[in-house]
Design a protein that fits this description.
Blueprint lengths: L11 H36 L5 H15 L2 H10 L13 H21 L14 H6 L2 H33 L9 H12 L7 H24 L3 H11 L3
Helix pairs in contact: 1-2, 1-3, 1-6, 2-6, 4-8, 4-9, 6-7, 6-9, 7-8, 8-9
Amino acid sequence: MKFFGRKHELTIEQKKLDTNLWIIALASMLAYGVYAFVGSSLMSFFKDSSISVWPRLFTSAAMEYGVAGLGITLVCILRKESFASYGLKKENAIKAVLGAVICFIPFIIFKIASGQFEGYKPLSVMVTNDLHKAGIISTIIGTLIIGLVWGFFEGFNYAVIAEIISRRYPTERKLFDWGVLVSAMMGIMFHPIHFDTLGIIDLIITFVALYGMLIVRKRTGNSWGCVFAFIFIWNAF
């Protein structure tokens, strides 16, 4: 792939892929733009236990979906593509899940060894405790919503972006891929960064986990490992 040098005419497919990336980027930037203006008010709203848990859950889920989910959904609708075309299929699903888990083992060990582990809490967000107080039905429905937005769409978002970039800038290398690299870097950009020793180690290990997870996705052609990792590991530690 050439980023510099003589320009050449793009194919129709390359133009479509570029448009897909712009759709995803603009949808995410729109959601971040909203948060930039009203973020502090939203955070206060989300944490206010005196307000019913449902409007807080739906609002926070809408914001999260806007960042990681809306863009890829629009692309699939526009291109008339199914989620299965981006790796949500049965073939190699177990390999993909096991591979993703293996890639996250250093991440898990580091979280525990560094004292950052405060209990295994899959599908836990700001309103989770209030959902539990609202009763078993609310807990079940709310947890399904959390799993869909913060688990499924967040993990699948990385897989789709990596796949689109890989199609646009293909490489035949086994352990390197432009889509994987960009998506992994995108993941750590939205990860809290601390520039002390532990913070730098955390950054490196997180990058390795995401990069490995996405390489597994590329090698297996299956995205369920990304979804599993975000539901049961990333958002649980």
